[in-house]
Structures are given as structure tokens and as C-alpha cells.
Amino acid sequence: MNALFVFLGGGAGSVLRYLVGLWIGSTAFPWATFAVNAVGSLAIGLFGGWASRFGWSEALRLSLTVGLCGGFTTFSTFSKDSLALIDSGSYGLFALYAAGSVALGIAATALGLWLAK
Question: Are 17 and 72 in contact (CB under 8 A)?
Fold first, then answer.
């Protein structure tokens, strides 16, 4: 049964990611992927913290963390965008994107966990 909740959350997260991509649009810097990964990192910290704090059911926790956040964030697109920046010779943007994505993702998750306390 938990797989169904993950499935539903993942579908919602994927649609949200698609809509953010439409809203932000395509630019030289992959802002849409950068934004969804940062927001998703904050969200997984919040959801994980709240699940522990308030004793959420396993189904709700899985639906929001594995499903929604997993469907919303995207490592594969991050990797594709990174290679596109390298292929275009935009080494500075690649370094900024890769380092910034990792640093911001970790910081956003930590912030989410801290806010949830």
C-alpha cells in the first residue's frame, strides 16, 4: 500500500517540476532545475522533520518525501544540464551550477530540518 502513496506523491511532484520549468523557461543557466532541487531539498528537510516531530504515518511520510520530493527534484536533469554547460564551453557556469546545487541543496535540507523543530 505504501507504494501507492509514493506513486501518487511522485506523480504530483513530477507535474509540479514540469510546471516550474514552464514558468521559469529556458535560459543559459539551468534555473528551473536549480530552483526545484533547492526547493525540494528544503521541503524534504521540513517533511522529514515534521514526520519525526508529529509522528506522521509511514504512508504520509513516504508520500511526501520519497514521492513528492523525489518526483519534484531531479538529479538526472542536473547531470544533463551540467554536461550541456561543459559541452558549450561554459566552464565557469558549470562550476557555479554544480557547486551551487550541491551546497544549496545540503544547506536547504538542513534549514528545513531546523525549521521543523
Answer: yes
* Among 66, 76, 68, 64, CA closest to 101: 76
Q: How far apart are the first and last CA of the chain?
A: 29
- Prediction pTM value: 0.93
Element (H, E) at 7: helix 2-24
Handedness of CA 35, 40, 43, 48 (dihedral sign): negative
pLDDT grade, residue 72 (50/70/90)? Answer: very high
| Mean pLDDT along residues 86-108 | 98
Predicted confidence at residue 8, as pLDDT, reads 98
Between the CA atoms of 69, 33, 25 and 18, what dihedral angle is there, to the nearest 10 degrees?
A: -30
What is the Cα–Cα distance from 110 to 71, expressed in whole angstroms? 20
**In the chain, where are the structural domains located?**
2-116
